[in-house]
Design goal:
heterodimer; A: alpha+beta; OB fold (Dihydrolipoamide Acetyltransferase, E2P); de novo design (two linked rop proteins); 7 helices; B: alpha/beta; Helicase, Ruva Protein, domain 3; 2 domains
């Protein structure tokens, strides 16, 4: 899009920001109808700016911008509701989903469905006790939206419905096939885990463990070998203790 | 030609300054050469001396020419208080304000997962060393009130939880001279959450 356009009243979230000259910021915003945008917010670092206090991640915003080219100029930002308050482990999970969006989405590609998934993931990080389930569901929807959707309901070789108690081998381009113990590629997991992610039901410890490996392998294929900073930091800040591992508890991201 | 080579190098070097692009670099270079040779020599010398002499204070991590900086080596500061800030600029601002008389610890940044900055890139080890070796009674977490600053404060308070020190955080709310009408909603909401009792009836 090269013509000059003005956009008003666009719902969005700040993903990340960088300093840009003395008083301005360069913002990465995830907007409902226009996808991931890069905006210059001029003068917001000045003392009298009312906008500065609301330009924070996880704050639902109403943004306006204008301009042509890759980087637009933000003309206003307002907040109508309170910020989603995330702390500790939950905050770092929030950073993780922001980084996923920054890394996986192209600029200026609309992803309306994913915007809904992002909002419900933030809601989940505020309210839910099972953070891993919240993240896995978001990752599933993200892959789906980008055209790399996971196959979760049928054995892709035979077309048969997934058996809860059977063991499957999930190979990246193919999908789940019954594990005959001869192959080595892919992730091995139980049918019930695939079903739990498909139906978005409550996760057991087994589901959490197996599905983390599944989505991680699927995402890594599209991250071009560059690790996610937030994932690395998470595993250092919230190290998994042996005791917890024995109890089947595991980290949400790492 | 050797002359043009020197100008080119100067422009390249000037572009290392934050916020200076090719055009500004050219303007500064020509100004210095045309109108202010003396200034150019002063600047070059000051940069050389600073780059060679300035290191980090062994106790607070602020920039310092000596092993201990002016504040850490002064006998007049209150050693009970340790104020943790993100940058030397934050420290200077607090010093200029004048109300704080304790010691400092400069982290040199904040935790920022999306930029790959974690506790290992900050002076966290030195903070722990300060608490172990000096009689610190209270640690004031004066990181910025941004999400990254909050994440850093959050992390540090978790880290210091088991130590025998009071941990506090800078208050937040309506700034002095602030008019409510012009306040952003996050600040105003926070001011209500952290309101102060004046009189218990």
């Amino acid at each position: 899009m090269t013509e000059r356009r003005r956009i008003f009243n666009e719902p969005g979230y700040l993903l990340h920001q960088r300093a840009y000259s003395e008083t301005s910021l360069l913002l990465d915003v995830f907007s409902r109808n226009y996808g991931r945008m890069t905006l210059v917010a001029k003068g917001v670092k000045r003392k009298k700016s009312r906008t500065r206090g609301i330009l924070v991640p996880f704050q639902p915003l109403i943004v306006a911008w204008s301009g042509r080219g890759e980087v637009k100029t933000m003309t206003s930002a307002e907040s109508l509701v309170l910020r989603k308050k995330l702390q500790g482990e939950r905050l770092f999970c929030g950073y993780y989903i922001n980084e996923l969006i920054l890394r996986m989405l192209h600029r200026n590609d609309p992803h309306e469905t994913l915007f809904g998934a992002y909002e419900s993931a933030l809601e989940g990080l505020v309210r839910e006790s099972d953070l891993e389930r919240t993240l896995r569901i978001f990752e599933k929807r993200l892959l789906q939206e980008l055209g790399y959707g996971l196959h979760l309901s049928t054995d892709t070789l035979t077309g048969a419905a997934i058996e809860p108690s059977a063991r499957y081998r999930y190979v990246a381009e193919t999908g789940p096939v019954l594990d005959n113990g001869e192959e080595h590629a892919g992730v091995v997991l139980h049918g019930e885990s695939l079903q739990a992610l498909h139906d978005e039901e409550d996760f057991s410890a087994l589901h959490r463990r197996e599905l983390k490996r599944l989505t991680r392998a699927a995402l890594d294929r599209h991250l071009e070998g560059r690790p996610l900073h937030s994932r690395e930091l998470f595993s250092r800040l919230f190290p998994q203790e042996n005791e917890q591992a024995a109890l089947g508890k595991s980290q949400a991201i790492g | 030609m050797p002359d043009e080579h020197a100008i080119g190098r100067l422009k390249e070097a000037l572009r290392r300054l934050p916020g200076v692009g090719p055009r500004t670099a050219q303007r500064i270079a020509f100004h210095m050469l045309e109108r202010d040779r003396e200034g150019a020599r002063l600047l070059a010398e000051a940069l050389m001396v600073a780059a060679e002499r300035v290191t980090h204070c062994g106790r607070c991590n602020n920039f310092s020419e000596a092993e201990l900086c002016r504040i850490c080596s002064s006998g007049k500061r209150n050693g009970d208080l340790l104020c943790v800030v993100e940058t030397p600029a934050d420290l200077d601002t607090i010093e200029q304000a004048g109300a704080y008389s304790g010691l400092y610890l400069v982290l040199m940044g904040h935790i920022s997962p999306l930029d790959g900055i974690g506790p290992d890139q900050l002076a966290v080890e030195l903070l722990l060393l300060n608490i172990n070796e000096y009689p610190v009674k209270e640690v004031i977490l004066a990181t910025n009130l941004t999400v990254e600053g909050e994440a850093t404060a959050d992390y540090l308070s978790g880290l210091l939880e088991s130590r025998d020190v009071v941990i506090s955080r800078l208050a937040r709310g309506v700034p002095v001279g602030g008019e409510l009408e012009y306040m952003d909603s996050n600040t105003l909401n926070q001011a209500f959450l952290e309101r102060r009792t004046l009189h218990r009836g």
